[in-house]
Amino acid sequence: MSVAEQQAQAEAERLAHRVFFYDLLHRLRREPNGLLPFHIVSRLRPKGEHYLGMRPIEVDKIIGSVDRYDDFDAQFLPKEPHTVERWTRLRTAQLEGVELPPIQVYKVGEAYFVKDGNHRVALAKADNQTYIDAEVIELEVPVALEPGDTLKDVILKGEYAEFLNRTRLDQLRPGHEEIRFSVPGRYDKLLEHIRTRQYFKGLEEKRSVSWEEAVADWYDTLYLPTVQEIREQGILQNFPGRTEADLYLWVMDHRYYLSQAQGHAVGAEEATASYRERFAKRPLGRFLEGVSRFFRRLSLQPGG
């Protein structure tokens, strides 16, 4: 066995320990430990692609693979025996002075998916390399991916892309405030709001209201004013992990019930203030409530 082979083998053994540690860490955190499969990009409704040519790209922005996503962990380190074996052979060649060719990637937003060169990326990752030469093809998507995105993030962004496709909000209101939810399945609620707005605007003005007009009117008169009130009243901080769009839906539901109870239309400012007073809890209040629940549970235990 040559010196290069011995060194590559030793590095592969150390790499196995890293892979084991990362896997254990992800299990303890109950987080997925794999690459993103390229096929999920279809959820983002790509509109086309164009060739960017050869350029250095940041290794840490590579988050997925076209067809080898099961062979590597989330850090793009080899986790299967055959993958480790291939990695070791490439590392040996690298140590012997062989120049490895550039990889091929798809660029989706600010993230990359490997089309060819998965093991070369694994080499770069193992060596904590910052950049790697790549031949880049960029996909044009309405909602961009980020390097830290998870499968859940892609699903949410895919739903947002579908919402934009159905509403054309990005064309009707260029530069509009992004509408992001923390959980899937909420954009259908927004479509219901738009359809409702379309219906009542038609009744009020005694004319047919187009879908495009309804979308713009909903955004201008319902969504944006409510979000602005949420910001001005600072209630998002009382709901960790939630988004402005989440609160918009909650405030709008609350606004409906207030209007029904009071017998007249309630505005965004009043509805948001009422929601804040009723549901938003300060950090100290949440802490004291948690302590109270803890002692209540203790008192209910046998012998308590």
Structural overview:
The protein is of the alpha/beta class and 304 residues long. Helices cover 53% and strands 13% of the residues. Helix 1 (3-29) crosses helix 2 (81-95), helix 2 packs across helix 3 and helix 8 (244-262) packs across helix 9 (268-279). A six-stranded mixed sheet has the order 1-3-5-4-6-2, covered by helices on one side. A hairpin with a 2-residue loop joins strand 4 and strand 5 (111-116). The protein has helices spanning 3-29, 81-95, 118-126, 151-167, 169-172, 187-205, 211-232, 244-262, 268-279, 283-300, and strands at 36-37, 48-58, 62-65, 103-108, 111-116, 131-140. The chain has two domains: 3-140, no CATH class; 168-284, no CATH class.
Silhouette: elongated
Run of helices and strands: HEEEHEEHEHHHHHHH
The separation of the N and C termini measures 69 Å
Low-confidence stretches: 284-289
The structure class reads alpha/beta
What's the number of extended β-strand segments?
Answer: 6
Q: What is the averaged pLDDT score?
A: 90
Count, helices: 10
**Overall tally of structural domains:** 2
Biggest sheet strand order reads 1-3-5-4-6-2
In terms of DSSP E residues, the strand content is 5-15%
What's the story with the biggest beta sheet? 6 strands, mixed
Radius of gyration: 26 Å
